[in-house]
């Protein structure tokens, strides 16, 4: 099931629990500490996911593209949700009440299969990034990040974006596990 079909399906199943929303570049969907009992389905645009470091600095640890799901699923009761989600482009998202989402992924096998596939794909992406961080040079990690985000993504206005051009050198450094200075130096030497 594609995200477009899924979002339309969810909205028809419970229009009161689902809301299609548009955000502009730089808008926060949620910030650390917000009470946001929702799940978000990204239809169009790019979202930066991250948290705050020990000194309060922003650390980006994922970049999401259309078709991905994010938010506090509240399955780890003893863990405080301390993440931010920020629009890197204009966005179209569907905001789903967490209680409805948890109900439907248990009772609707098609939605459950979509959710499982989406979560496993996200885990795989995170595991590969960790594996590369442990065993590859910064240059190779940058090449892999570039390969991962080579496809153009359209935002809510229909404008096309190269994902890496939406990120600062610090955000790229966060994603590959290096310093901003090292990433800046390596990117200057990389072919375009």
TrEMBL record:
The keyword Coiled coil does not apply. Keywords: DNA-binding, Transcription, Transcription regulation. It holds the Pfam family cNMP_binding. GO terms for biological process: regulation of DNA-templated transcription. Transmembrane segments: none annotated. It comes from the Bacteria. This is Cyclic nucleotide-binding protein. GO terms for molecular function: DNA binding. The keyword Protein transport does not apply. SUPFAM superfamilies: cAMP-binding domain-like. Coiled coil: none annotated. Residues 21-122 form the Cyclic nucleotide-binding domain. InterPro entries: cNMP-bd_dom (IPR000595), cNMP-bd_dom_sf (IPR018490), HTH_CRP (IPR012318), RmlC-like_jellyroll (IPR014710).
């Amino acid at each position: 099931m594609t995200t477009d079909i899924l979002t339309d399906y969810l909205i028809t199943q419970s229009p009161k629990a689902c809301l299609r929303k548009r955000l502009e570049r730089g808008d926060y969907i949620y910030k650390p500490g917000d009470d946001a009992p929702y799940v978000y389905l990204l239809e169009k645009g790019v979202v930066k996911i991250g948290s705050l470091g020990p000194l309060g600095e922003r650390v980006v640890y994922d970049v999401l593209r259309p078709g991905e799901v994010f938010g506090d699923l509240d399955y780890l009761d003893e863990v405080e949700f301390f993440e931010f989600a920020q629009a890197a482009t204009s966005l179209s998202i569907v905001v789903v009440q967490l209680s409805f989402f948890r109900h439907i992924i248990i009772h609707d096998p098609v939605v459950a299969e979509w959710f499982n596939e989406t979560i496993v794909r996200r885990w795989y992406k995170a595991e590969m990034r960790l594996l590369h961080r442990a065993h590859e040079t910064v240059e190779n990690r940058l090449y892999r990040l570039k390969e991962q985000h080579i496809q153009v993504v359209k935002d809510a206005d229909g404008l096309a974006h190269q994902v890496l051009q939406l990120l600062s050198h610090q955000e790229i450094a966060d994603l590959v596990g290096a310093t901003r200075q090292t990433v800046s130096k390596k990117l200057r030497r990389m072919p375009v």
